[in-house]
# Entry
Amino acid sequence: MEKVYVTPLSGRYASKEMNEVWSADEKYSTWRKLWVALAETEKELGINITDEQIEEMKAHINDIDYDVVAKREKECRHDVMAHVYEFGTKCPKAKGIIHLGATSCFVTDNADVILMSKALEIIKEKLVLVIANLRKFAIENKNITCLGYTHFQPAQLTTVGKRATLWIQDLLEDLEELEFVQSHMKLLGCKGTTGTQESFMKLFKDEEKVREIDGKIAEKMGFNKVFAVSGQTYTRKLDTRVLNVLSSIAQSASKFANDMRLLQHEKELEEPFEKGQIGSSAMAYKRNPMRSERINSLSRHVMVLSQDPAITAATQWLERTLDDSANKRICVPEAFLAIDAVLILYANIASGIVVYKNVIRTNLMQELPFMGTEEVLMNAVLKGGDRQELHEKIRVYSMEAAREVKEFGRPNDLVDRIAKDETFGLTKEEILKALNPDNLCGRAPHQVENFIRNDVDPVIEKYKDLIKDINIEVNV
# Structure
């Protein structure tokens, strides 16, 4: 029987590996690993805990009876204590020392940091893959001159590859931010009910030993940083920081998706379109930018979710309130699942963008006479013309040509108008030569080369092992 998912983020959009990070098995087995780390640390610092008890706990880390947990939680109304109880039924010798001296947030908060750290690594992997796919696209299309737009109105020329560097640059900023957040992930440690470690002071009666607890547990869980101080929980600013990174990636992806939708409307670029793909249930000829639209949709969800931890962080009372719990359980996993899905789509599109060079050239040539008038003006002046007089004539001719295009749907005849005016002293061939689009896109091709060499390639080299064997599939 097919596995049923409660949320489409799990069943339809996100990857298997991201689903596994936020699965119940991963969460609660991490709780048990933390209990083992706590017991090992307490034993090392002198508490009477045996190797036999610790080995018993280790043997049952992944052996969770959810029916027993659910029944117990219904009785005690406490999820952590329900798991302590169930773990104890599997570990009768260790039952009395499981969770010794700790409060619930020891497992819930530390586990959340561990899971977010694993999820960030998956996101980084996919982010680097998108950058690598766009790098290839930018290089291949660095010399394809196209219309540049401001206000979605034709402006100066650029190249298809240069436009792609703008998408890459946003992602590099996101990657830099993600790396920063990763490098500053900290465990809560084992701070107790109000963060004072009072229960451990009573347990050990030795402050020097209590000082060692956090560092030892962190090391066992693969971390080298612990929050120096806390209330019962780690500061919820950490969740805000993490989801802000995901929101930033969503912003970049959404910008790309909007650009793709606009350019697919212009018939210049197009998403990959599989042989059997259906664009519309009603209009068989259509090739809708469905994946880009889905990126926009999911990205919007991530950006909205990023507000949840911000509000939570701002409204925590003193050392601890529980109004963070339900919200945190929902918004953090959902944000990761959604941005995972976004990056799967982004990588898929970026690996197979279709470029329609002839349409790009046609659209460009339709607008080119307006854009090259400065070049024509300079050539005419070099032949002895009066700049002010010629500038006024070009202005008038441009308005007349635009009227022909907009009101009557006729071809742009600005070149013919100028060529017929002997004041300019230019033949039609000379005007067309001056209007060579490949000479009107500034440094765009070289900007692509320099950007790829100086900014992108070092990142690709740094993370080459992350992307060498990745095969991205997408549910279209």
Summary: The domain at 373-434 is CATH 1.10.40.30 (Ribonucleotide Reductase Protein R1; domain 1). Residues 104-140 form the longest helix (37 residues).
